[in-house]
Fold these 3 entries.
Entry 1:
Amino acid sequence: MGPGLLDRSRIVAPPGWSRWLIPPAALSVHLAIGQAYAWSVFKPPLEETLDLSGTQSALPFQLAIVMLGLSAAFGGTLVERRGPRWAMFVSAVCFSSGFLISALGVWTEQFWLIVLGYGFVGGIGLGIGYISPVSTLIKWFPDRPGMATGIAIMGFGGGALIASPWSSEMLDAFGTDTGGIATTMAVHGAGYAVFMSLGVWLVRVPAPDWRPAGWEPPTASADRMVTTGQVSARNAIRTPQFWCLWIVLCCNVTAGIGVLEKAAPMIQDFFADTGAPVTATAAAGFVALLSLANMVGRIVWSSTSDLVGRKNVYRLYLGAGALLYLTLALAGDTSRPLFIAATLLLLSFYGGGFATIPAYLKDLFGTYQVGAIHGRLLTAWSVAGVLGPLIVNAIADSQEEAGRSGPDLYVLSFVTMIALLVVGFIANELVRPVNAKHHEPPPPERQAEREGQAEREGHEGAARR
């Protein structure tokens, strides 16, 4: 594929192009890179075959999440400028190559190649792929931006539901020695390259004058949070609104990812001292339910935000999330259904937070460089990806060393999460409309029109006087 085919100018949609083809294009990328949530499938065979510790086998995943945030932050402006086809192509090349390099690393028993491939190269593919469709979807769906981004980002949450059984089946078929793991990773690399290429081929950007049938851009919004101005990525990070949302996202993600990362041992520990302890099989089923809640929450809550507003839906994520953690801390091991219901809701808020944030950014900063702004905001995810598991694991380990068991291992973690969610709630309350001084100047023709209008109004006022 030559560079010319990747240029933004080559993918402007012709008249009559259906905007409903764009969410499947975005999903083809997000369902693929969502495999990151299924990395744990590779951990046991890698630990056994290459004689790795649990900490070592987590390194490729941890580096991938760090690179996701960094590549999204530093590549966001380039993605905006070069367009979604270029971004999806780069994502597909990096993510697929990451698996192929990892396969070579397993084959040659060089663990550093696995870290380099899956963690560094694949992580760049994660970050560029994650933000690649965001601004395009918002431009195609200005009437329903929350729903549009929710559909795509739902794919990232649901990618593990496909990847986990697929990877397990291949490891069963090819074996869990170095040859079998390497073959499985190589098939992943080739398979995802083909699947992601569908999005590269299908994606289009709307013509500059395109708008949905019957929809008119509002000159003013009943919701004061929705701007009619445009803010650049450079100016956005100079506003208090950006940093308030950074805190909001970091707190919401920390509260969710801490549970998600330790879900199976957590439910087993929680009910270990009851008459009916949780089996390993049941714990695995619980993890699958949490992944489903994470995925469904992304589309349900982001679509709800189109109706009730972004600020209100984040009040739900953060306020109700704090109350759910309080419920878990107070109820202890008295009710397994309550524990499951509360954690499912928490994970739906976790997923919903990811899916709603692009639309929140669009409301505050406009569509001009919303993808680049989103990329910079995802550094909050990198921080939360380290902070959440660290809080839950470190506190549980210290409580176990102190001789505690059952819910007592996690109560302090839950109290910490409540505090973080309260901080996030306050940050959300502090979000106000962006000051017009940060807006980009209007195009020359609109500026001339405004000046002419002001001059006419001045003459009319003078005549009346």
Entry 2:
Amino acid sequence: MDAEQLRECGHKMVDFISDYYKSIDTFPVLSQVQPGYLHKLLPDSAPTHPDSLEHLFDDIQAKILPGVTHWQSPNYFAYYPSNSSVAGFMGEMLSAGLNIVGFSWITSPAATELEMVVLDWLGKMLKLPEDFLSAGQGGGVIQGTASEAVLVVLLAARDKFLRKAGKNALEKLVVYASDQTHSALQKACQIGGIHPENCRLLRTDSSTNYALSPDVLNDAILSDIANGLIPFFLCATVGTTSSTAVDPLSALGKIAKTYGIWFHVDAAYAGSACICPEFRHHIDGVEEADSFNMNAHKWLLTNFDCSALWIKDRNALIQSLSTHPEFLKNKASETNLVVDYKDWQIPLGRRFRSLKLWMVLRLYGVENLQCYIRNHINLAKHFEELVAKDSRFEVVTPRIFSLVCFCLLPACKDEAFANKLNHDLLNAVNSTGKAFISHTVLSGKYILRFAVGAPLTEERHVNAAWTVLQEKASALLGTTL
């Protein structure tokens, strides 16, 4: 393909994507297809001869889009947002066009150095301690997901402790977190060889709004020490998956410091809100942490994947993850004057992901990004007020960011019936294709989650989703509005 063919095809693809966004709210938000649908529509082997781009677009329209759940739809309120933007898309396009594999500085110096610069920018937006910036012993790195971030810091912490206690101490290492912590921590423990029985997911309840209690943590640590175990890793969360609970970082950090435990803070979703001064207090205490993570690809208009991880001691990562095969040796790396991000992550290869974050920060600016976050929080507050006005519903946990946890109340007090009622309401709403919400379980109670965060969502979309919820609730309860 020459430059002119690229220009022609590229224009057609941009036109196709532009048309998609122009009509995105006409699609059912949640895909309505059945498992295996695509196998029936596509051939069982690749074509022998080239097809045309026009035929390919026809198939995307007729066969692929019906099987897509539209995360960028203004009617998407499930899980957490995964933001896209023009700036992020253009950065992704440029990254794909350059197609570098920037595992070390020498493979593309700009890829390494831009990543250092933009993560310093973002770290300063979040008012992170200087220890996390690249001028010191720490620095930032873009991982694919928060799951990768927690894995690499857990491995770094594990190896740091094993160097002191000996390789045979692995079976004694203990990890701590609340029972609201993302399941990625459990997977990291499995990969890292931490014994399943030594992964302490400490119970939370409504008395702390499902945040981890420092007293519960301290008691668990003391008990483990008394039993000859080695506490080594604590994961706190700012904005838990189920309900956006915020663990008390300052108190937990002091406990971690007392016992010499690695302290990691996962702010994958809610970290973006902390660029706003009025929400920054939710990460007060981050100065006690050894590592901090947030996902720019969730709520900061940066296309997936772009998970920002900061660490105070880069050598902890490097000692755990670096390899030095002959074919990767080069003068720049051997001078120790450059960063080789291959030593900060699991895979060797890496994309030029900093381009899209750089373009988002440049083309929107901090003030616009703050307004963007505030708008979603205000829309969630509006939805919360709508729920509170309808006596058939209940807001279950305090709204902190842009997630509202709520449920439909049955006439009777039977918990099993209430759970089924809300399960049925979820399915009824999602089957309409007019809105997509998700659920969780808190203290045995089936809860509906309404997460505002799609880039195109406006108040009218929130109101329309609420109308659908009310209509389906009325049908299930056998009442009228």
Entry 3:
Amino acid sequence: MAMAGLYRRILPSPPAIDFASSEGKKLFTEAIHNGTMEGFFKLISYFQTQSEPAYCGLASLSMVLNALAIDPGRKWKGPWRWFDENMLDCCEPLEKVKDKGIPFGKVVCLAHCAGANVEAFRTNQSTIEDFRKYVMACSSSDDCHVISSYNRGTFYQTGTGHFSPIGGYHAEGDMALILDVARFKYPPHWVPLGLLWEAMDTVDESTGLHRGFMLVSRRQRAPALLYTLSCKHESWITTAKYLMDDVPTLLSSDDMKNVENVLSAVFTSLPSDFAEFIKWVAEIRRKEDGDQVLSEEEKGRLTSKEDVLKQVQETGLYKHVTDILSSEKFVCQVKQTSGDRDSLSNIAASVCCQGAGILTGKSGLSDRFCCRETCVRCYRAMNGDKPVTVVSGTVVNGNGEQGVDMLVPVSQTELSCCISGSCGMHPASNDILTALLLALPSQTWSGIKDEKVLEAISGLVSTDALPPLLQEEILHLRGQLLMLKRCKDNKVEDDLGAPLI
């Protein structure tokens, strides 16, 4: 039997029932026959142990995302795309989570940013009857999972706040199965659902708010094919504030006489590090010697990225943005703001370093790598398929070097090898700014006083007439922007149900 101490804990029973005990097995068998263990099998296939004592929220979410087969759109290690705790850092720095844990609202934010559908409820905004209904529904299906945030003390367990997925439900006994991600501490266990509700109906001292539960499900299409927002860099706070708070104020000026005035006003005051806020998403893979073959899946994702890029460049807004950025007034400013980061060589070096960090399991530590060289190659396809562009980099650190390949969406097919400077064949400032302007909430522009100008700009930024692929991309970006704005305002914790578009 496990002894209390640093090697696991003895599970207090009652109230909990060890999943592997004879009584736990009996509950499991009966629940299977009653059809309320359907969600269990996908979850148990991806059951993981949190890698840090404070990573219970990240482990629970990565486990659920993998169970739902949500594609993260970027590599974990080697050729594999896979959700790992270290990849869930878009709403809270990992070092902060490791030190202090993560509050309920930030886990909701992470689930949204990872591309899942999320419904979240605090206990003071819901009822035990609703909770039971949701647990039964998700336990009877494998396309929705419940993550619970609760206080361990209610079960006489050591520790306080904790996250874990709910793996099933026993209707006759009104028992919920907790798949505890702290497997080094306690095994999976059944608990009375009413007692679990009491454990959730407690206040998190770090936020002063009630704990609760969230329902996580899969979207029809993976979002963020080409663009995504990032709060890994501290610039996201100033950029989010500028876009959501300052821009509407700027546009209420009497100087907004035409579309050019409006866009110029926005661009003139852009924070100097805005380029760190919105990113284009690259496919990263480890470079193997002599391996120049891309799978059909990789080609398909790259084609989708190119379609989104082309659709951005076909919007009327893109033409206005390009005309303004190419004017003499803004050329110097754009170079200053981007720091010449729009050159494919610089982007390739940066992304290849990030890729090396991901491939070596050191995500977020890309500054410890140096990209020695980059080269772009165009692999001409057979059977009339489009050529595929791959940027190759050799990344070095104190432990050696790593070859990294990056698949690049292109807007032209004539490419040269051994690049230097900008080639105009990748998402650049005008593409990124166009996407960012389209993603701003519609009320951003409502302060424009001239009705004709307001009508013109509203037509340019409207998502209604966008092609479906680009429309979904932009609406996902808008949801990310609103969620990050709530993070900045510390409203994500008490505004879980607010719309994201």
